[in-house]
Amino acid sequence: MKPDDALEALLRPPVELWSTMTVWGVALVAIVAPWALMMPPWMGWVLAAIAGYFGWVRCKQALHILKYQHGMKYYPVTRMAPHEIPVEPGQFYLGHGFEWSQQHTQRKHEASRPDAERFVKPQAREKALRQLGTRLSAWSQEAAVAATSDQAPPSKFISIRMGVAGLTAQMVQWDHWLNPLKAYDDLGGSPLLHGVGALEERPITMRQASRTGHMIVLGTTRVGKSRLLEVLATQDIHAGHVVIVIDPKGDADLMMRLYAEAHRAGRGNQFYLFHLGYPDISARYNGIGNFSRITEVAARATNALPSSGNSAAFKEFSWRFTNLVAQAQVALGRVPTYESLLADVTGIDPLFMDYAHMVFRQKAAEGQYTDYQDRLGHLEGLIEKKKYPVSRALSDRDPPLVAMISLIKELRVPDKVLTGLAAAVSYERSFYEKIIASLGPFLEKLTSGAVGKLISPDYFDPHDKRPIFDWMSVIRQGGIVYCGLDALTDSVVSSAVGNSMLADLVSVGGKLYKTGLDPHHPTGKIVLPTICCHFDEVNEIAGPEFVPMVNKLGGSGFRITAYTQSMFDIEAKVGDKAKAGQILDNFNHLVMLRVRSVNTANLLAEQVPQVDVVHITPSTGVSDSAADGSGVDFTSRNVDIVTSTKVPMIQPADILSLPQGQAFALLEGNRRFKLRIPLPRKDADPFVPESIRQVALDMKARYRTSEQWARETDWLGNQPIGLAGGGVIDTALALRDQIQDEQEDSDGDDSLATRTEPREMDFNSSANATGVLE
């Protein structure tokens, strides 16, 4: 091996094998025929031991060279079942890999030389052996199928053939780098990017405490973002954290994976499924029903409206009328929903009358306008008799409505909402409809069909068994929520719902930051939960509310991991390059899989330093001279000139050449890592449902009926949130959950199943981690 101050020479023939065979041959002769070496037997054994040890050292060096060159040619693949993902206290597993340094940049530079091609690319002999292995594997499978078919008569020949086929399959599938017949997956890209450090590979983790700085994952389609999301979300589920996954595509495989992991962790009763593509089994969610300030309702309802050019004015008008309607609804004790907003914005007259009567009743109770009913009746009579001047815009309105508007103007009632509603009602109907022309169709899209019942739930429908969840109750419960927005079917609805969810989370985060989970904690401490948010295709749902989410919610216990294809996706969504840069700058950790844009790759490449790469230039020269009697007729020299050049440690072309499932990462203060994401095992997983139908049946069995709310105890009071578990994921956690499900099914009426009294839980103990809701 090389001394510490010498250059590496890993791309060369393994010449150590020659000395290995030589000294081992000497050792064999020394044992078998010591007389041939003119030494006694005991000395032959001593020589054999010394030569054997020297040969072992040289053989180890040769194998190191061969293994390194093998890693430069082929893709390493690790398959891992969910319960095999390492979960260590305080650590967060990202994949297998190594920390990238100057040494790896040097190796990559050496591998790009033309004379190194035969060491970093499979040669014809190796390709032929791999193809032979593929044919042998196919033959063994065909032989096994033919032998087990009903038409194959039992015979000794068949048994021998099955045995040979089994041995052949084991030989071909032997998972070792020395196996010349093993076929490797073609993952695209360049395998040498991971091969330069494959011998130093280890599990790469980051500190859980550093996750509050948030992480963004960039990568083009089908390169492993969803698989990384599964790996990361699985750890959060088994660690006992609150987990929120928003998936605009509505990937059914991801949904079933989270469903399976929730049950594997014994948290099946804490799992909420919200999916716009499967409304029959989805829970319900009102994105505008929970707020800290009433103006949030209008902002969430109109955020998805176009705001460029002339549309900006119409969006502002829509916001104003929506805000008036929302304030009036809340004052009347109603819960705002998209459906109620649509009804009251497009038909504002009934809401105005209800709110006006409520205001006058309140004023009358305070001793003001006590005769308003008499004055209202008097005005109404004059209007009916056409003895009171009425504006042209109100000429086709009902007399009670016109009388109420006139009375409000006459009395100058000091209520901004009332005067605002009166002004809106006073507009000419055709003019008012033009002002809200963009708002009405948009709200109709959100409230049409079965999807409308999901995002505009009827709180008083006793026949709808689907639960209605809100973020604060999910957080207090320690829940797991999967939100599939079905963007491929209707991108407008999915974007609006996603925006409202993020805005709602920001509002909840503000409450947690100020008061924590328990504003009345006896010690006065602010107890914060651990909330792990995974936003796939974040560009689909990112809006103005996403900026405060990534730069402020870390202090509320939120750990956000966002996934997208390109930095341009975010820029196109928010419509401002500066604002897109503001969003990206608030992510402390960056994981970048293969991307297709050099500008996106530069987001990582420009953050790494430049390092010195060494070049060796051989120089040979000969010079002769006339005979001068000195006896020297010519001189020669052989020189290796060593020079160094500054190059970026990671170049954009490296990122564009990444194989599928591999990534570069900048973690915890710009520490550079090369990652390889483990693939899922192909073995059948008993916790993964066979189909969406099975998920539907189970979710329907678990849903509680809305008319049973009075019988449910207060389980929101003392549940400890965010207690991290330790060790490898324990699949035994789900046993009690399965037994519990069987007991519930045997009790008779599932529709009347209610929650039991809460109890303190310790997610560090697998005996107690059976879920909050039983």
From TrEMBL:
Keyword Membrane: yes
Region called Disordered, residue ranges: 740-774
CDD domains: TrwB_TraG_TraD_VirD4 (cd01127)
Upper taxonomic lineage: Bacteria, Pseudomonadati, Pseudomonadota, Betaproteobacteria, Burkholderiales
Record field: compositional bias (Acidic residues): 740-750
UniProt cross-references to SUPFAM superfamilies, sorted A to Z: P-loop containing nucleoside triphosphate hydrolases
Residues annotated as transmembrane: 17-36, 42-59
Pfam families: TraG-D_C (PF12696)
Presence of keyword Nucleotidyltransferase: no
Entry protein name: TraM recognition site of TraD and TraG
